[in-house]
Design goal:
The protein is of the alpha/beta class. The strands form seven sheets. Strands 6-9-10-4-11-12 form a six-stranded mixed beta sheet, sandwiched between helices. The protein has a six-stranded mixed beta sheet with strand order 21-24-25-17-26-27, with helices on both faces. Strands 1-5-2-3 form a four-stranded mixed beta sheet, covered by helices on one side. Strand 26 and strand 27 (1264-1269) form a beta hairpin. The radius of gyration is 37 Å and the shape is elongated.
Length: 1302
C-alpha cells in the first residue's frame, strides 16, 4: 500500500525546486534498498488525480451546461480542450516561460562564436573582453540547462495530469452507461480509450509549445544567419523551408503506416483478449493452435505496416542528420556566388545555428501529425462521453421505509433496443410488498433475467411506472468475482462488522472452507474465480450481497451451480432466515423452491403469464403445469427414498477445490515450506538488468552479425562530419584580411564529398538498425506467443490475463519500435561524446584532464540514480501516476547535474583558450572546438539519459524473455505413439493405478482419509485398483486423492457429489488439463498420458460448466474451425432447439446487426479510413463479447450444438443443464440419448434426474471415490451416500421448503 506522507514537491523551497533536491531523499532510499510502492510518497494538491478530476469535472459540466441550456447536454471536443486547459493552466504558463528562456539562451552561444574567434585572432574591442565572452557563454548555458530540465519536468507533469483526469472521466462514464451503449462497446474498445487515446492526449503535452517555438527559433536563427552571411541567409531560409516540405510527405507516410499499424494491433489485441478469457475452452476443444495461427495472421498484417513504418522512419532519420549539412552547403554556395566573404567565425556561427534548427525542423511534421492524432483521440473520447447513460428516470427510487410496497411496476413496457419495433418486456404489472419472497420461473429465453435487469434500471423503459423502495443488492447468474482476497470480495469496500460477517459466512456455508485454508479468508482468488468451484463462486457472491444489508435482493438463479443439499441450505439460511424481513425476488429453474414463495411469476415471451401462489396457479395455468409436470416427470424415474433426518444433517456442504481444500497433513508431506497462494505477486526482477538480456536481444537477429556494421557506420558518420567541419574551419580565413589556403570551389567540393559520405553512412546505419528492430521483434513475438499458447492451464490459473496482455501489448510495442533505437542511440551518442572530447583535447589537452574526473563524477551520479529509476519504471506497471511523476523528477535531477558538469568542461575549455597567447592556435580550429563544446552538455546528458532509458526499456525485453521460457504442456502429437483414426471405438474410460503392487485401495494412503469404495465386478474393474492423484500446482494440496473406477464403453455414466468435491477436476484430468501426480487414465486400452494432447482432445467432446461464446456470428461460434457445411450446422441447431431463434435473424448463420455507433471498426476489421468516411453506420455482430446478448441457457445450448456437430465417441457434460429449466433439461437429455446412444456419456450434474438412468454412478467426496456402482444397487442401500443425495433432492422437490424447516 502506498504511503500517505505528503509529496516532498509540495513542501520544497525555491532552491530545492530549482535543483530538484526535493527528490533526493527518494533517490537515496532507492540506492540503499529496492523501492516498493509503499516507499513512494503520495501525490498532493493538483498532482493528485482526485483534486484534478474534481476541477476538470466541475469546469466540464459548467461548460456543457452553459452551451446546452434546455437541450441535450452533449460533451464536445471543444469542451474537453477548454476543461483540460483550465485544469492545467498554471503548468501551461510555467512551461511556456521555460520554453522561451530555453529558446533565447540556446542561441547565445552561436551568436557569440564569431566574436570569440575574432578575439582569439587578436581583435580586442574592450578590456577583459575574453572573460566577458566566457561569462556570457556560462550564464547562457546555466539558464539553458535549468530551463530545459524544468520544461521537461513540467510538461511531463502536465501530460500525466491530463491523462489522469481523462481516464477518471472515462472510467466514471463506463459505470453509468446504459445497456444498449455497452452493447455498442467491447471491453477492448474501452481499454483503447484508456491505453491509447488518453495516453495520446497526455503525450501531446510534449508538443504543446512546438508550433510557436518553431516560429520563434526560426526567426532568431534567421537574424543570426543574416548577421553572419548577409543576403545568403535568404538561401538558408529557402533551404530550411525545402527540408520542412521534404519532411511532410514522409511524415504523411509515417502517420498512415502508424495508423494502420495501430489498427492492426487493436485487432490483434482484441482477438488475444478474447482468447485469454476463454483459454480453457480452447484447450478442451483442442482449438488453441488454430487460434494461435489466427494471431500469427493478424500479426503478419501488423508486421507489414510495422516494417514500412520502421524503414520510413529510417529515411526520416537520414534527413534529420543531413539537414544542417544540406542547408549549410546551400548557404555557403550562395555566399560564393554573390561574393559574401567566408570567414571561419561566421561559418562556425552559421553551423552552430543550423544545428539548433535541426530538431524543430525535424519535429515540425511530427507536431502537425500529433495535433491531428490528438484531435482524433479527443473526438473519440468525446463520442464515448456522449453515449447514453442509464436513464435515471427509468426507476423511481424512494428512501427506505417510505412506502409499504417495495416494488411497483404499472403498465411497464421495456426494451433493450428502444428503436426496435417490439419490446423485451411488455405489459408488466407487479406489486411486491416489503418482506415478500417472489419467485420468477419460465423456460429458456422467456425474459426472467430481463425482468431482473429491468428492476435494476438496466433496460430502457418505453412506458409505464417502475418504483423501488430502498437500496438494492443483485446476485447475477454468472458469478462475478474480483481478483483479490475472499474477504475483499465479500466486503466489497464496506467496513468490517465482525458480527454481520460471521452471520453471513454461516448462512453461506463458507466457514468450513475457511477453516481448512492456510490463509483463511485472506486466500487470493484467481482471475474470474478460476481457483474456485462453481458453487464456491456462487456462495461468495451471495455472501457479498448479504453483507451489504440492502432492502431489496434480486437473485438471478444463483442455486443452479450448487448441489441439492447446498442449494437447500442456502435457500433456507439465506432467503428464509437471514433475509426474512427483506424483499427478495429470485429467478429459479428449481421447481422445488417455488412453494416457499409468497408470489410466483411465470414468464413467457417477455410477459408475466401467471402470477400467484403455488397452489393457485398450479390449478389454473397450463404453462406452469408444464414446468411442474416436466419436473415431476424427471422425478418419476426416482423411487421415493426414506432416510433419517440425522443422516441428512451429517452431510454439510463441503469443499475440496484445490485452493480451498487439502488436508494440512497432505500438504506438509508434499511441500514442507510455507504455504503459497495460487495467484501470487507478479514476478518482478530486482536490481540491475543482467548483461545476458542485452546479449540475447542483440544476437537474436542473424546472431548479431549486423551489430558491427551498425557501429562502423556510426563511427564513419561521426568522423566524416567532424572532418567536414574541420575542413571548413581550417580552409577559411579568420578575417577578411587573411588569405584563404584553398579556393572557394575546392572548399565547397571537398565539403560536399564529405557530406555525401556521411549521409551514406547514416543511411546504412538506420537501415541496419530498422532491420534488427523488425526481425528481433518478430522472432520474440512468435516465440512468446507460442510459449503462451502451449503453456499448461495452471499457468493461466495463476496468471491474471492483464499480466499477459501487458506483455503482448505495451512490452511488445516497446520491442517493435523503441528498444532497438534506444540501444542504438546510446551507442551512437557515446561515440559522438568520445569524438567530441578527442577533438577538444587535440586543441586544448587540458580539457582531457578535466574530463576524466568530471566523467567519473557523472558515472557515479548515474550509478547512484539508476536503482531508483529502474524500480520506479517497474512500478509503473503496478500504478501509473506516482511512479511516473517521481520517475520524471529523478530523471531531471540527474540530467540537471550532468548538464552542469558538462558546462564545467565547456567553460574550462574556454578559459584555456583565452589564456593562450595570440597565434598559438588557429582561431578557426579554436572556434570549431567552441561550437562542439556548445553541444557537449547535450551530448553527455544524452548519453546518460539514453543509458538510463535503455535500462528502463530493456525491462520490456526482460519481461518478454520470461514468457519465452514458460514450462510447456506435453506434446500435442507424439508421432511414434499416435492412436488409430478410429480411436476410441468403444469409449471405455478406466482410471488406473501406476503402481500395480497396490492391491487394495485402503493401503494407498492413510485410511482415515479414505472412504470405502463400493465396487461391483460388473461395473468397476478389480484389475485397476489403486488411486489417481491430482494437484493443480506442486505447492498446492491434492484435489483428487484416490480415484479408481471404470466408465463402461457406449454407456451413460454419472458423476455426483457435493459442491467442490472434485467432479470438474476429474474431467480436467480426463482431458489432461491437469496432469496426475500418480495414476493414469486409459481409454480403450490407450494410456492417455502416452499420446499427444491434440490426439486426445480432438477425440473427446465436452459441454463445459461455464458456457462460452465468442464475439462474432452464430456460424463462427458453432464451427470456429470451419469444418462443417451449412446443412450440418442447421441440423445441429434443430437438435439443440435454437434453429427458430437463428432463423428470426436476417442474416441467419451469418447474421449481423446495424447500429449508428462509432467504435466497431476493430471488431469487424473495417478499415480505419472507412470508419471516418462512413460515420453514420458501422456494423456489429449478432453475438457480442462473451455472448452477453444471449441468455445463459441459450449459450449452453450453443455448446450442445458444438458437440452435436463433432459427435465424438466420448462425451462429457459438466453441469451442462445447470442454467436451463427442467423441461429444456429433459429435451437436452432426450437429444443426448438419441444422438449419442452408442457413445460413452459422462455427466456431472447436481440434478439427480440427469444421472439416475446412468449405467454407472460415481460419487465423489473430498476428492475421493466414495461409491461407484449402478444407481439401482446404490439406491437399494439407504445408507449409501448416493441414496442420501437422492433423498435430499426428492425431499426438497416433493415438499415445501418451509415445511422442511419446521
Amino acid at each position: 500500500m502506498q504511503t500517505e506522507t505528503m509529496s516532498p514537491f509540495v513542501k520544497a523551497g525555491f532552491f530545492s525546486t530549482l535543483t530538484f533536491s526535493w527528490v533526493g531523499s527518494l533517490i537515496t532510499k532507492g540506492y540503499k534498498q529496492t523501492l516498493d510502492l509503499k516507499d513512494i510518497p503520495r501525490l498532493s494538491g493538483k498532482d493528485d488525480v482526485y483534486e484534478s478530476s474534481v476541477i476538470f469535472s466541475n469546469y466540464l459540466e459548467s461548460a456543457v451546461n452553459a452551451q446546452h441550456q434546455g437541450k441535450d447536454k452533449k460533451v464536445t471536443t471543444i469542451h474537453l480542450v477548454k476543461s483540460l486547459i483550465f485544469t492545467t493552466r498554471a503548468d501551461i504558463l510555467w512551461t511556456a516561460l521555460f520554453c522561451l528562456l530555453y529558446a533565447l539562451s540556446s542561441f547565445v552561444g552561436p551568436y557569440l562564436i564569431n566574436n570569440f574567434v575574432q578575439y582569439l585572432n587578436g581583435k580586442r574591442n574592450f578590456k577583459h573582453e575574453g572573460w566577458v565572452l566566457v561569462s556570457g557563454f556560462f550564464v547562457a548555458k546555466i539558464v539553458e540547462c535549468v530551463a530545459q530540465r524544468h520544461r521537461f519536468f513540467r510538461l511531463q507533469v502536465l501530460g500525466v495530469r491530463a491523462k489522469s483526469v481523462l481516464m477518471e472521466r472515462i472510467y466514471r462514464k463506463g459505470l453509468t452507461l446504459s445497456c444498449r451503449s455497452k452493447q455498442g462497446q467491447t471491453s477492448g474498445e474501452m481499454i483503447n480509450l484508456f491505453a491509447v487515446d488518453a495516453d495520446r492526449v497526455g503525450e501531446f503535452s510534449w508538443y504543446l509549445h512546438d508550433p510557436w517555438m518553431v516560429i520563434l527559433q526560426v526567426g532568431i536563427a534567421m537574424l543570426i544567419l543574416y548577421k553572419s552571411l548577409g543576403l545568403a541567409s535568404i538561401a538558408s531560409f529557402i533551404a530550411t523551408v525545402i527540408v520542412m516540405l521534404a519532411n511532410y510527405p514522409l511524415s504523411t507516410f509515417i502517420k498512415r503506416y502508424q495508423k494502420r499499424f495501430m489498427q492492426s494491433k487493436d485487432m490483434r489485441m482484441k482477438a488475444t483478449s478474447e482468447i485469454l478469457k476463454n483459454v480453457r475452452i480452447l484447450k478442451l476443444q483442442a482449438w488453441e493452435m488454430k487460434f494461435l495461427s489466427k494471431i500469427f495472421e493478424l500479426r503478419k498484417t501488423e508486421s507489414k505496416w510495422l516494417r514500412r513504418f520502421l524503414y520510413t522512419m529510417a529515411l526520416t532519420t537520414v534527413i534529420f542528420f543531413i539537414t544542417p549539412t544540406f542547408v549549410s552547403v546551400i548557404s555557403f554556395a550562395t555566399c560564393i556566388l554573390i561574393g559574401v566573404p567566408l570567414e571561419s567565425g561566421k561559418i562556425l556561427s552559421a553551423l552552430a545555428t543550423l544545428k539548433i534548427l535541426q530538431e524543430p525542423i525535424y519535429s515540425l511534421p511530427d507536431t502537425v501529425s500529433m495535433i491531428i492524432q490528438t484531435k482524433v483521440s479527443l473526438d473519440r473520447i468525446a463520442s464515448f462521453l456522449c453515449l447514453d447513460d442509464v436513464d435515471p428516470d427509468t426507476v423511481e427510487k424512494l428512501p427506505s421505509g417510505e412506502s409499504e410496497m417495495a416494488v411497483v411496476v404499472e403498465d411497464g413496457n421495456f426494451s433493450w433496443d428502444p428503436s426496435a419495433p417490439g419490446t423485451s418486456l411488455k405489459d408488466i404489472n407487479l406489486k411486491v410488498q416489503i418482506g415478500m419472497n417472489v419467485a420468477v420461473c419460465g423456460t429458456v429465453g422467456s425474459g426472467k433475467s430481463t425482468l431482473i435487469s429491468c428492476l435494476l434500471g438496466e433496460v430502457p423503459k418505453i412506458s409505464g411506472i417502475l418504483r423501488l423502495n430502498g437500496s438494492t443488492a443483485y446476485v447475477p447468474q454468472s458469478p462475478w468475482i474480483q481478483s483479490g482476497t475472499i474477504v475483499d470480495n465479500i466486503l466489497f469496500g464496506s467496513k468490517m462488522d465482525e458480527g454481520r460477517y460471521d452471520s453471513v459466512l454461516e448462512s453461506c456455508a463458507l466457514k468450513k472452507d475457511f477453516e481448512i485454508l492456510p490463509f483463511g479468508d485472506l486466500t487470493v482468488i484467481g482471475e474470474r474465480g478460476i481457483n474456485l468451484s462453481g458453487g464456491q463462486k456462487q456462495r461468495i457472491q451471495i455472501a457479498r450481497a448479504l453483507y451489504q444489508d440492502a432492502d431489496i435482493y434480486l437473485f438471478d438463479d444463483p442455486f443452479s451451480a450448487v448441489d441439492a443439499h447446498t442449494g437447500s441450505h442456502l435457500f433456507k439460511e439465506c432467503l428464509l432466515r437471514l433475509l426474512q424481513s427483506k424483499t427478495v425476488i429470485y429467478v429459479t429453474h428449481q421447481v422445488e423452491f417455488l412453494p416457499a414463495a409468497d408470489l410466483i411469476l411465470v414468464m413467457k415471451d417477455g410477459m408475466i403469464l401467471q402470477a400467484g401462489k403455488y397452489n393457485d396457479i398450479l390449478a389454473t395455468g397450463t404453462d406452469f403445469i408444464e414446468l411442474v409436470g416436466a419436473h415431476e416427470q424427471a422425478l418419476s424415474t426416482i423411487d421415493p427414498i426414506t432416510i433419517n433426518e440425522s443422516d441428512l444433517e451429517s452431510h454439510e456442504p463441503h469443499s475440496s477445490r484445490f485452493s480451498l481444500d487439502g488436508e494440512m497433513n497432505d500438504e506438509k508431506s508434499i511441500n514442507p515450506h510455507v504455504p503459497r497462494q495460487l495467484v501470487e505477486e507478479e514476478e518482478r526482477e530486482k536490481g540491475r538488468v543482467g548483461i545476458s538480456v542485452y546479449m540475447k536481444y542483440i544476437t537474436l537477429t542473424y546472431k548479431g552479425a549486423l551489430v558491427p556494421f551498425i557501429l562502423l557506420s556510426q563511427v564513419l558518420f561521426v568522423v566524416l562530419q567532424i572532418l567536414g567541419n574541420y575542413w571548413l574551419a581550417w580552409a577559411t580565413p579568420a578575417s577578411s584580411k587573411s588569405h584563404p589556403p584553398v579556393n572557394a570551389k575546392t572548399l565547397l567540393r571537398v565539403y560536399v564529398y564529405l557530406a555525401i559520405g556521411s549521409a551514406a553512412c547514416v543511411l546504412a546505419r538506420s537501415t541496419f538498425l530498422a532491420t534488427v528492430s523488425y526481425k528481433t521483434a518478430t522472432l520474440l513475438f512468435n516465440k512468446m506467443h507460442s510459449c503462451i499458447f502451449r503453456a499448461p492451464m495452471s499457468f493461466f490459473d495463476a496468471t491474471p490475463s492483464g499480466r499477459i496482455l501487458n506483455r503482448v501489448s505495451s512490452d511488445q510495442s516497446v520491442m517493435d519500435i523503441i528498444i532497438a533505437n534506444q540501444i542504438g542511440f546510446f551507442a551512437f551518442s557515446l561515440i559522438q561524446l568520445v569524438a567530441t572530447i578527442v577533438l577538444m583535447s587535440q586543441v586544448a589537452w587540458e580539457v582531457f584532464v578535466i574530463f576524466v574526473p568530471v566523467t567519473a563524477i557523472s558515472l557515479w551520479y548515474q550509478q547512484y540514480y539508476i536503482p531508483s529509476a529502474r524500480e520506479l519504471s517497474r512500478l509503473i506497471g503496478v500504478t501509473k501516476a506516482p511512479p511516473k511523476f517521481y520517475g520524471t523528477a529523478v530523471m531531471q535531477w540527474l540530467c540537471l547535474r550532468l548538464d552542469l558538469l558538462s558546462s564545467v568542461i565547456f567553460i574550462c575549455s574556454l578559459i584555456v583558450l583565452i589564456s593562450l597567447p595570440t597565434g598559438v592556435i588557429n582561431p578557426g580550429i579554436a572556434g570549431l572546438v567552441v561550437s562542439y563544446g556548445l553541444s557537449l552538455n547535450t551530448i553527455q546528458s544524452f548519453v546518460i539519459k539514453n543509458l538510463c532509458n535503455m535500462e528502463n526499456r530493456i525491462i520490456s525485453v526482460e519481461r518478454i524473455l520470461q514468457y519465452t521460457s514458460i514450462t510447456s504442456e506435453p506434446p500435442l502429437v507424439i508421432e511414434e505413439n499416435r492412436p488409430d483414426k478410429s480411436w476410441p471405438s468403444n469409449g471405455e474410460v478406466a482410471i488406473q493405478d501406476l503402481e500395480p503392487k497396490m492391491k487394495d485401495v485402503s493401503c494407498c494412503v492413510d485410511t482415515s482419509y479414505i472412504a470405502k469404495v463400493k465396487c461391483q465386478s460388473n461395473i468397476c474393474s478389480h484389475n485397476y485398483r489403486g488411486y489417481l492423484q491430482i494437484r493443480y500446482a506442486p505447492h498446492l494440496p491434492l484435489v483428487l486423492k484416490g480415484i479408481t473406477c471404470t466408465f463402461a464403453g457406449g454407456k451413460k455414466s454419472g458423476i455426483v457429489g457435493r459442491t467442490g468435491s472434485g467432479k470438474s477436476t476429474l474431467i480436467q484430468a480426463l482431458f489432461r488439463i491437469v496432469e496426475p501426480s500418480a495414476g493414469h487414465i486409459v481409454i480403450d486400452g490407450v494410456n492417455i498420458s502416452t499420446i499427444g494432447l491434440h490426439d486426445l482432445r480432438t477425440s473427446l467432446s465436452i459441454i463445459p460448466q461455464d458456457p462460452t461464446m465468442f464475439q462474432g456470428t452464430v456460424r463462427t461460434n458453432l464451427d470456429p474451425l470451419e469444418e462443417y457445411t451449412d446443412h450440418q450446422i442447421w441440423e445441429a441447431l434443430e437438435k439443440c432447439q435454437l434453429a427458430e431463434e437463428v432463423r428470426k435473424k436476417e442474416g441467419k448463420l451469418d447474421s449481423i446487426g446495424m447500429f449508428s455507433k462509432t467504435f466497431h471498426f476493430i471488431a469487424l476489421q473495417v478499415p480505419f479510413d472507412y470508419y471516418f468516411s462512413h460515420k453514420c453506420y458501422v456494423y456489429t455482430i449478432s453475438v457480442t463479447e462473451n455472448g452477453e446478448n444471449w441468455s445463459m441457457g441459450q449459450r449452453q445450448l450453443v455448446c450442445l450444438g458444438r458437440v452435436l456437430l463433432k459427435k465424438s465417441k466420448v462425451l462429457v457434460l459438466d453441469e451442462a443443464t445447470a442454467s436451463v429449466d427442467t423441461a429444456t433439461d429433459n429435451l437436452i437429455q432426450q437429444t443426448i440419448r438419441e444422438h449419442f446412444y452408442d457413445s460413452t456419456v459422462i455427466i456431472i450434474a447436481h440434478r439427480i434426474t440427469s444421472v439416475i438412468d446412468s449405467h454407472t454412478v460415481v460419487l465423489l467426496n473430498q476428492g475421493l471415490v466414495e461409491e461407484c456402482d449402478s444407481p439401482l444397487h446404490l439406491l437399494e442401500d439407504h445408507s449409501s451416500g448416493f441414496a442420501k443425495l437422492v433423498a435430499e433432492y426428492t425431499s426438497r422437490s416433493n415438499a415445501r421448503v418451509e415445511d422442511e424447516e419446521d
